[in-house]
Amino acid sequence: MKTKTCCFSGHRELYPKKIPLLEKELHKIIADCIEKGYRRFLCGGAKGFDFLAAKTLLAHQNTYPEIQLEIVFPYHYLPSMWKEIAAKANSLTYLSETYYPGCFYARNRYMVSQSHGIIYYLEKETGGTAYTVRCAKNSSLALFPITLSSESEW
Questions:
Q1: CATH number for the domain that contains residue 33
Q2: Residues 6, 115: contact at Cβ < 8 Å?
Q3: Angle formed by the axes of helices 128-138 and 103-113, to 10°?
Q4: Pfam families from the entry (predicted)?
Q5: Is the Cβ–Cβ distance between 128 and 1 less than 8 Å?
Q6: What is the pLDDT of residues 20-30, one digit of tens each?
Q7: Residue 7 and which of 92, 131, 133, 152 are 20 to 30 A apart at CA?
Q8: Domain limits at 39?
Q9: What is the mean pLDDT of residues 57-76?
Q10: Does residue 152 have a pLDDT over 70?
Q11: Which of 88, 99, 83 is nearest to 59 (CA)?
Q12: H helix runs in 37-126, sequence order
């Protein structure tokens, strides 16, 4: 049986006061996905939500050592903030040797094409996350949205 794969998508810029709530929701949704049989998780290697998702997933490896983190970079680079997490990841994938216009969208399409589900945090209907969620819906992926119950407080 093919390993069930789930990818992450979310915004690069996160409101600092939302981060603890996002992390709490990520923990719950990741645990739910693991219980549903997901074992491979793809993360896009950007700051913000991607970084938080990778860090949160790695915390689950203590309880679920069988889960795997693959970080998918759009081109061959490794931002300094990712070095520690990259060292703990099961694999790193570089989709291109160099940057080119559209490489981030190509990365997002790759992650969707490799996945059965998507965990996402979407605040606006424009940009890379909105594009990725539309691709996921068009590909009939299982959708695991993160919604913060106290959004009206922000």
A1: 3.40.50.450
A2: yes
A3: 30
A4: YpsA
A5: no
A6: 999 999 999 99
A7: 152
A8: 4-153
A9: 95
A10: no
A11: 88
A12: 49-60, 83-88, 103-113
